[in-house]
Amino acid sequence: MNNVNSLFSSLWQDYITRLSPSAGRVHQLLSNGDELINDHIALRTFNLPKVGLQTLAAPFLAIGYKACETYDFEAKKLKAQHFEHPDPNAPLVFISELLVEELSAETQDIIHGLVEQVPAHYFATSDFLSSGRPWTLSFEDYQVLAKESEYASWLAAHGYGANHFTVYVNQLEAFAEVVDVNQHLRDAGFAMNEVGGEVKGSPEVYLEQSSTMADKVTVNFTEGEFDIPGGFYEFAKRYTLPNGKIYTGFVAASADKIFESTDS
């Protein structure tokens, strides 16, 4: 698990520093001084050869993760896959990719221009997973992307890093239900994602999820600095399958609503 812990430590430090500064406060509010279990992280990319889903998956496969279920998000023009490690204590990994060819010509041109700036050796080590944006971007182009795809503009602006970490609600002593977590955070001043209801999923699909709305973070563009949505914190409660095992997959209808936590 040393390699796993090292990789996730790097992702966490980048996440709380650059993408979701409020995550540290959420962590304190829920942990009671104990270490929280991270259910999963999510990563975003484009489905272009150099930077596609498999490029992001490679560092995880190298440390023992195995590819599992795939997911389609037709309305958002995304495909995704999740990965599991043989050690059940290792976090799950959810990687999605934007189907660039399904976007407008103008948006495709911008995205191809970004990816062309990235040298092939950039992906030689796992460091790229928490290294941020490997290209320059104008705020004008960011706004063009945002009009068509929030996912595209988020990825273009932030590059590589954990879009979110996820508290495993099952291990919390103070809160038995996702709604209790939500209320505790709401009372502390956090805005929760209520798209599709404050709790996505149900015991019937063996997974319940919720999330904060993304922090606003300052990002450098060629025209200067602008505040835009960054990362958010998710909360997941998993239920036992008929075979007696905890469900380890994802529910596409719920994940679709979680994506909207980064909408401005």
Automatic annotation (TrEMBL):
Q: Which UniProt keywords apply?
A: Aminotransferase, Dioxygenase, Iron, Oxidoreductase, Transferase
Xref: SMART domains: DUF1338
What InterPro entries does the entry give?
A: HGLS
Keyword Oxidoreductase, does the record have it? yes
Q: Which cofactor does it need?
A: Fe(2+)
GO terms (molecular function) for this protein are: dioxygenase activity; transaminase activity
| One Pfam assignment | HGLS
Its Enzyme Commission number? 1.13.11.93
Which branch of life, at top level?
Bacteria
Q: Return the similarity comment.
A: Belongs to the 2-oxoadipate dioxygenase/decarboxylase family.
PANTHER family to which the protein is assigned, alphabetical: 2-OXOADIPATE DIOXYGENASE_DECARBOXYLASE, CHLOROPLASTIC (PTHR31136:SF5), DUF1338 DOMAIN-CONTAINING PROTEIN (PTHR31136)
Its name, as the record gives it, is 2-oxoadipate dioxygenase/decarboxylase
The taxonomic lineage of its organism, from the top, reads:
Bacteria, Pseudomonadati, Pseudomonadota, Gammaproteobacteria, Vibrionales
